[in-house]
Amino acid sequence: MPQVTARTGTAAPGGGQKIGLLALFWLFLRAGLNFGGGLAITGLLMDELVERRRLLTRPQFLSLYGLARILPGGTLTAHAIALGYRFGGLTGSVVALAGVVLPVLVPALALAALYEQLRGSPVLDLVPVTLLPAGVALLFGAVLTLGKEIARPSLELAIAVAGFVGVLAFGAHPGILLMLGGVAGAVFLRGEKGSG
């Protein structure tokens, strides 16, 4: 696979793909400044890293995302750490995490202070009819973007639907379904897809 230099973004002979630490920080900072939460930011990162910069293939990106989903804690945090490590090792992980967390930290502290001041005020009654529908629309758009990979008749879609039905209809534990889905994917999809 060609190496991509941080300065020019062009292919260079060699092994892995590279993006400079400063460019990595700005990429995650810009992603963190977007509205819509982790899934919307993940969709934006996929567009940037897979479609625009072509630093990762779609399966590589989604594999890291899937691994981040399995870990306890925040998916976006785990995904930022994994992508940062992929492009810059341990330092890249710290840089990517700082970029994606900084835009959230200051507004979260400010909103907590504002909420304390407005608690009991009629202004807070506007949130369910204004901000929540906008947030749902952003989330729905991100789900559609990320779902394109499995939204065709395939074994992956069958595994996803089986997990969805298992949780909703039978009350199965999501952790158990995640493990079963991983085993089913490893058994039935092994060798079907290239390494990307």
Give the SSE layout.
Layout: E1 3-4, E2 11-12, H1 21-32, H2 37-52, H3 58-70, H4 75-118, H5 127-147, H6 155-170, H7 174-188
Antiparallel strand pairs: 1-2
Write up this protein.
- This protein has 196 residues and is mostly helical.
- Helices cover 70% and strands 2% of the residues.
- The chain is built from 7 helices and 2 strands, in the order ββααααααα.
- The protein has a two-stranded antiparallel sheet with strand order 1-2.
- Strand 1 and strand 2 form a beta hairpin.
- The longest helix is centred in the middle third of the chain and has 44 residues.
- The protein is globular.
- The termini are close together.
Low-confidence stretches: 1-15
Secondary-structure element order, N to C: EEHHHHHHH
The tally of helices reads 7
Structure classification:
mainly alpha
Beta-strand content estimate = under 5%
Instruction: State the strand order across the main sheet.
Output: 1-2
Mean pLDDT: 80
- Radius of gyration over all CA atoms, rounded: 19 Å
Shape: globular
Head-to-tail CA distance between termini: 10 Å
Largest sheet: 2 strands, antiparallel
- What percent of the residues sit in helical stretches (DSSP H or I)? 55-70%
